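Board notes (copied after class):
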Amino acid sequence: MDDRNTSTRRKVTRKKRQSKTIYLTGLVLLLLFSALFYINRNSSLFQGVISTFTDDSKIEKQSTSEPALTSVKVQPSLPTSKTDIANDQNSPEQDFKAEQTTTITPPPESVKPEPVKTATQILTKKTLTAAPATQITCKSGTKVVRDFFHHLDRQEYMRPYLDGQRSESYFIPIIQKLADNPPVVSGETSDLFTILQNTAHFFRIIGKQNIQALKAILHNEKKYSENVLLNFYTITGYAGCTQSEFGLDIPKNALYDYAGFFLNTVGGRLYLFRRESLSRMTVIYYSILIIQEANREGRNAHGIDIRPSVKLLIPEIEENGSKLFLRDRYLEKLYEIESHFQ
């Protein structure tokens, strides 16, 4: 009997020790992580990871907030008694003098007439909203992209970012910098540091201010973005087109790395997870096209399999893509790609 009691006590004591050990280990790990975070709180990598999860709501608030205009209407006082009516009945001579002394107050400066759209503005909007051409050439695709830059030049929400520059001069260097510094696609999960780098990739390469500008465009230009992206993607396929028209050198391998980043890495999927559904579906669609082209040309160096992405994207566009302007075009191409797998 004593032996049983002794063994039971030992078991209870052992469990208590194990619980204390687990608790102390967790506490030590928490303290170590907190110390690491505190030491590196000013590093660009940690700031990038944090900003990746905190900037979207700020952009939406900035882009949707508009200064409220308050107007006060002054109603003329009406006579309410017989005395008032009698006093109000002036002679014609008094009325004439009153008209001479009455001053006309100009409208307040805050109320401005809407600016008349110029012919160039009207033509630009027609170009951006027109149905995509059956055959997009280097010349026609360049015109759509350039018209979009002209359109951004006139948008009020872009002024804080452009600071007097033209949109084309502002964004072309950003695109080139991204093309020159593609993310890690293969071996991302080999260490935590690489995952953190990929998660903060855009922050590290182009900075917070430029990310906010791009997010503002995605939020405000949903009507035009699909057509512009289609034309831009198409002209990157013409050898020397972006170089001669915009001074942009975008290697196919850079596009391939970004496509693999969005489809096949933790960092890329985190970016897409935080985007609204229409932008996410569009980015995945073009990523699939880029990998498919790499497959045809024997350039799929990372061996990325697009079949799972195609199978997931088709029903998502069918069920949730009714607001996509080029929905039918996307589905037709995806059905074609899917048929090659069967």
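Comment from the instructor: The first helix runs from residue 2 to 39. The mean pLDDT is 77.
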